[in-house]
Structures are given as C-alpha cells and as structure tokens.
C-alpha cells in the first residue's frame, strides 16, 4: 500500500507540472510530463483527459479520442471524457474534417518524399485552412518552404506553430535556422547588444561643426536660374530625341514580351483546366470513400459503446439495463472482428443465464404481489430468448392483470411455437379450448 501511495504522489506531481506547462502554452512539454504521470498511475484520470485536450489542441484528434475512450473504460463514473466524446459525436463534421485532413497530410507527405513539392504545398495549405492548429502540417509546410529557399514563408509557418505550442522543439530548431538565413539572428543580437550596452559618450565623440561662408540671396537666385536654362537646353537638344527612340523601342519589346506571356498563359490555363478536372474527379472519389469511412466509424463507436454498456450493466447486476441495451442492439450490423468477439461473449451470457435470471426475478415479484415488476421482468426475459416457460408465464400474468388480448396472443404462440412442450396443454386450458 505504501508503494502505491508513493506512485500516486509521483503521478500527481507530474500532472501538476504538466498542468502548469499547459497553462503557459508549452504543449509539447506538458504532454511529456502527463505521459510520465500515466506511466506511474494509469488511473490518473485528470492527466489522461488533459493529455487528450492537448492532442486535440495540436490537431491530433485521433490521439485525443484514444485517450478519452481509455479514460471512460477505466473510470466511467462522472468522467469529463464522456462530455468530450459526446460533443464530438454531436458534430460529425469535426470527425469528417479531421479524417480528411489526416489523409491529405499523408498524401502531402508522400508528395514531398517523391519531389512533388507544389502538390504537397497545395495539400498542406488546404489542411491548415480547415485545421489552423494542426502543428504537424505547419512544420512540414515550413520544411517545404525551406527546401525552396522561401525563408520568409517558412518563418511565418513556424511562428504559427510557436503561437500554438510555445516550446515545440522542432519549431524552435527550424526557427533558429531560418533566422540565420534571413539575417534576423544578427539583427536580434545587435538589438541585444544595444540594449545592454553601458558605454558612455566621450568628449572626442562630439563632432564640432565647421564654419560656413554665407552667400547673398541674389547670387543664389541667379545661379539657380542659370542652372534651369542650361538644363532645359541640354534636354531639348540632346536627350529628348534619344529618349523618344528608346521609349518606342522599349514599348515594342514590351509588346512582344506581353504577347509571348499571353500565349504561355493561355497554354498554362489549358493545362490547369485539365489538371483541375482530374483533381475534381479524384476529390469526388476520395469524398465518397471518406463518407463511407465516417459512417463506418460512427457505427463502430455506437456499437462499441452499446457492448461496453451491456458489460457494465452485467457487472453491476443491473439486468434490466443490460436487457434494454441487448434487445436494442442490431447484431446483424456488427462485422468488426473485435466487436464480434465481444458480442459472442455477451450473447452467451444473455441467452444462457440472464434470461432465466429475469424469469426467476419475475416469479419472485409475482409471488410478492408486485405484478408490474413481474410483468417487466417476464417481458425482458422473452425478448432475450423465447422459450415455452417464460412465454407462458408472461401470458398468465397478463391474464391476471386483465390484459386478455395480449395474454391470448401469447397463449396461442406457446401452442404454435412449442406444440410438444408441456406448457402447450396448459396454455390451451388457460386459453379455454
């Protein structure tokens, strides 16, 4: 016990340090401290939920969901992670955008690895447009700008990363390199030297002005007028004709250049139109695949939560809740191997013993005079597994409570579905034929 308390205290210390780092926008440092907290105590709910929030803030939505789902499985009671998951499920567009961004980021990474830098930059700009806090996309975009020697754009991307995660190690290293390339590092060092400089001005630093000989105003006016006359003469006699010829030649050259550029632009426009048609087709195909993926993902989450809810209800002995969730489950829609395995285990319990236990609870309630409770227990027992005995008991209590129509229907079902059962003859007698 002393060892467990020590581990819990260590985990709490790491959590408090991580919380302080997160408040200072040092998300990378906070994430490392929170991972250490979970290493010492995996049940540290606050650390796991905060780690999920940090992942979400940095654009890693999938990692955030993993942390919150684990948190719910370990500690389901009064867990804030339930609220986070519910908010995301209420806004399916978030999952769609994040899934789309992950695919586009991976595609951009593939483009970058195969020297298709233009397509990679285009994809990353789309990702950042949808998820401005996606740190990995900003860093990859800055690397592509650095490869193309576009240092200013690279610096802007890294600046955005440091606004999100103040001490991101990759962004800090790349920013130092960009500053050296742009001369920003020398400027900052010079400013620091000037700020912390304590050199005092010496007497020799003062420059004494020299005496200036004064000229009369009339002499100045005469000189200015003479200069204007000479300038106009030279301009009209020598410079103007040559300037006109140069201007005409320059205009002709510019006209030829503009014509060539226009032809090239038209050709490029045609190429871009064809490329755009191809990209639109690819976009439509990817969107269709993404829609299918989103539907499958939402279905998986709903099925998983239902199965977990059934397990939790069985573990706490809440058989009514387990029966409600089990009968509402669409078993034919479950195709994932892990979920099929969970369903098989639950089904063997529900249809092997739980329905009999509900039948026994119904009989106990009936004997105690709690007819409504008995009716409910028998009903859930029949919904889980229809057998001659529980169906007959359900019909008998319905008959006792005056629900003659429903009781007769169930008596007929016993006779029709289980004709060789001893309850078939009892059903006929109770039915009156």
UniProtKB/TrEMBL annotation:
<dbReference type="Pfam" id="PF13174">
    <property type="entry name" value="TPR_6"/>
</dbReference>
<dbReference type="Pfam" id="PF13432">
    <property type="entry name" value="TPR_16"/>
</dbReference>
<keyword id="KW-0802">TPR repeat</keyword>
<keyword id="KW-0812">Transmembrane</keyword>
<keyword id="KW-0472">Membrane</keyword>
<dbReference type="InterPro" id="IPR011990">
    <property type="entry name" value="TPR-like_helical_dom_sf"/>
</dbReference>
<protein>
    <submittedName>
        <fullName>Tetratricopeptide repeat protein</fullName>
    </submittedName>
</protein>
<dbReference type="InterPro" id="IPR019734">
    <property type="entry name" value="TPR_rpt"/>
</dbReference>
<feature type="coiled-coil region">
    <location>
        <begin position="262"/>
        <end position="303"/>
    </location>
</feature>
<feature type="transmembrane region" description="Helical">
    <location>
        <begin position="218"/>
        <end position="240"/>
    </location>
</feature>
<keyword id="KW-1133">Transmembrane helix</keyword>
<feature type="repeat" description="TPR">
    <location>
        <begin position="11"/>
        <end position="44"/>
    </location>
</feature>
<keyword id="KW-0175">Coiled coil</keyword>
């Amino acid at each position: 016990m002393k060892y467990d308390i020590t581990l819990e205290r260590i985990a709490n210390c790491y959590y408090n340090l991580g919380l302080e780092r997160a408040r200072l926008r040092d998300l990378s440092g906070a994430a490392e401290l929170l991972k250490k907290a979970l290493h010492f105590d995996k049940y540290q709910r606050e650390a796991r939920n905060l780690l999920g929030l940090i992942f979400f803030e940095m654009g890693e939505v999938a990692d955030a969901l993993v942390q919150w789902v684990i948190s719910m499985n370990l500690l389901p009671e009064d867990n804030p992670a339930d609220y986070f998951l519910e908010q995301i499920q209420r806004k399916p567009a978030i999952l769609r955008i994040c899934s789309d961004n992950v695919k586009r980021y991976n595609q951009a990474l593939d483009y970058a690895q195969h020297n298709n830098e233009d397509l990679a930059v285009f994809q990353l700009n789309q990702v950042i447009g949808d998820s401005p806090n996606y740190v990995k996309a900003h860093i990859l975009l800055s690397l592509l700008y650095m490869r193309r020697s576009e240092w200013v754009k690279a610096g802007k991307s890294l600046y955005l990363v440091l606004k999100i995660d103040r001490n991101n190690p990759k962004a800090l290293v790349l920013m130092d390199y960009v500053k050296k390339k742009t001369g920003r590092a020398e400027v900052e060092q010079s400013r620091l030297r000037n700020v912390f400089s304590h050199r005092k001005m010496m007497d020799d630093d003062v420059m004494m002005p020299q005496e200036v000989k004064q000229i009369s105003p009339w002499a100045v006016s005469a000189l200015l007028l003479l200069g204007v006359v000479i300038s106009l003469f030279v301009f009209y006699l020598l410079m103007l004709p040559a300037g006109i010829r140069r201007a005409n030649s320059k205009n002709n050259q510019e006209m030829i250049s503009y014509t060539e550029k226009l032809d090239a632009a038209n050709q490029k426009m045609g190429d871009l139109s064809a490329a755009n048609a191809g990209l639109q087709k690819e976009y439509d195909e990817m969107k269709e695949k993404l829609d299918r993926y989103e539907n499958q993902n939402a279905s998986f989450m709903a099925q998983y939560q239902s199965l977990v809810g059934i397990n939790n209800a069985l573990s706490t002995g809440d058989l009514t809740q387990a029966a409600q969730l089990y009968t509402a489950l669409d078993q034919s829609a479950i195709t994932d191997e892990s979920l099929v395995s969970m369903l098989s285990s639950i089904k063997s319990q529900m249809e092997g013993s739980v329905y009999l236990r509900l039948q026994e609870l119904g009989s106990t309630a009936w004997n105690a005079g709690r007819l409504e409770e008995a009716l409910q227990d028998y009903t859930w027992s029949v919904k889980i597994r229809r057998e001659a005995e529980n169906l007959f008991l359900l019909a008998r209590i319905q008959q006792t409570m005056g629900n003659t129509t429903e009781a007769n229907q169930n008596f007929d079902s016993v006779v029709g579905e289980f004709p060789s059962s001893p309850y078939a003859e009892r059903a006929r007698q109770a039915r009156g034929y």
